[in-house]
């Protein structure tokens, strides 16, 4: 069933599980689930993914391995920025990049309920990573847990900011390529605000809240 704006309504979590692991939205840009991220990094990588953007707070094998190395070494890489040195006992990494089997992964977890402020800083990091991969003519995967909300939000923001789409056009394309995939109401509101030039202001308090919540989110 479609919403009033002609964009498909989001799927419920059970129906979302029936979706393919990932779908190509535009050439080189894939949106999918955590399983697609695992397939790309430790599986056969059938989609030839070179860059993975994990916005679901999912503890993929790559992140788990990086955490294990960090604990074993009792520290972090010497070239890591202070903001990147945030591996926790829960396996979370905010803004840290890992390379495994030739696939580069950036983990920037977002809250599944739309409470992550889409600030200029966050958008720059998310969209810049995607653009870097596409400019290198490589395949880029953006994934959350199920590939229906957070990853779709990021892909929509990319299409609007970097490819000249309107939010409605981007959502329609995403819904056509990955049926039922659509940001929740809170993220949709932020995307439309972004389109109007009203980007969220950073908030240390809200960042702490969503950072923890992201690791507990269902989708």
UniProtKB/TrEMBL annotation:
<dbReference type="InterPro" id="IPR000387">
    <property type="entry name" value="Tyr_Pase_dom"/>
</dbReference>
<dbReference type="Pfam" id="PF00782">
    <property type="entry name" value="DSPc"/>
</dbReference>
<feature type="compositionally biased region" description="Acidic residues">
    <location>
        <begin position="75"/>
        <end position="86"/>
    </location>
</feature>
<dbReference type="InterPro" id="IPR029021">
    <property type="entry name" value="Prot-tyrosine_phosphatase-like"/>
</dbReference>
<dbReference type="GO" id="GO:0005829">
    <property type="term" value="C:cytosol"/>
</dbReference>
<keyword id="KW-0378">Hydrolase</keyword>
<dbReference type="GO" id="GO:0007165">
    <property type="term" value="P:signal transduction"/>
</dbReference>
<dbReference type="GO" id="GO:0004722">
    <property type="term" value="F:protein serine/threonine phosphatase activity"/>
</dbReference>
<protein>
    <recommendedName>
        <fullName>Protein-tyrosine-phosphatase</fullName>
    </recommendedName>
</protein>
<dbReference type="InterPro" id="IPR020422">
    <property type="entry name" value="TYR_PHOSPHATASE_DUAL_dom"/>
</dbReference>
<comment type="similarity">
    <text>Belongs to the protein-tyrosine phosphatase family. Non-receptor class dual specificity subfamily.</text>
</comment>
<dbReference type="GO" id="GO:0004725">
    <property type="term" value="F:protein tyrosine phosphatase activity"/>
</dbReference>
<feature type="domain" description="Tyrosine specific protein phosphatases">
    <location>
        <begin position="120"/>
        <end position="181"/>
    </location>
</feature>
<feature type="domain" description="Tyrosine-protein phosphatase">
    <location>
        <begin position="21"/>
        <end position="200"/>
    </location>
</feature>
<dbReference type="InterPro" id="IPR000340">
    <property type="entry name" value="Dual-sp_phosphatase_cat-dom"/>
</dbReference>
<feature type="region of interest" description="Disordered">
    <location>
        <begin position="200"/>
        <end position="219"/>
    </location>
</feature>
<feature type="compositionally biased region" description="Polar residues">
    <location>
        <begin position="87"/>
        <end position="100"/>
    </location>
</feature>
<keyword id="KW-0904">Protein phosphatase</keyword>
<feature type="region of interest" description="Disordered">
    <location>
        <begin position="75"/>
        <end position="100"/>
    </location>
</feature>
């Amino acid at each position: 069933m479609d919403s009033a704006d002609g964009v498909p309504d989001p799927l419920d979590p059970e129906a979302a599980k029936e979706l393919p692991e990932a779908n190509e939205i535009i050439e080189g840009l894939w949106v999918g689930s955590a399983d697609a991220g695992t397939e790309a990094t430790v599986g056969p990588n059938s989609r030839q993914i070179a860059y993975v953007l994990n916005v679901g707070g999912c503890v993929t094998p790559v992140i788990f391995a990086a955490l294990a190395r960090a604990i074993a070494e009792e520290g972090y890489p010497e070239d890591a920025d202070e903001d990147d040195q945030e591996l926790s006992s829960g396996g979370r990494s905010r803004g840290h990049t890992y390379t495994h089997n030739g696939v580069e992964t950036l983990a920037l977890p977002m809250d599944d309920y739309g409470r992550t402020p889409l600030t200029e800083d966050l958008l720059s990091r998310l969209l810049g990573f995607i653009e870097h991969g596409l400019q290198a003519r490589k395949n880029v995967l953006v994934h959350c847990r199920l590939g229906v909300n957070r990853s779709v939000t990021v892909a929509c923001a990319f299409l609007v900011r970097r490819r000249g789409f309107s939010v409605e056009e981007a959502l329609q394309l995403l819904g056509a390529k990955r049926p039922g995939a659509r940001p929740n109401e809170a993220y949709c509101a932020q995307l439309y605000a972004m389109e109007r030039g009203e980007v969220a202001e950073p908030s240390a308090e809200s960042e702490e809240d969503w950072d923890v919540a992201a690791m507990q989110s269902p989708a």
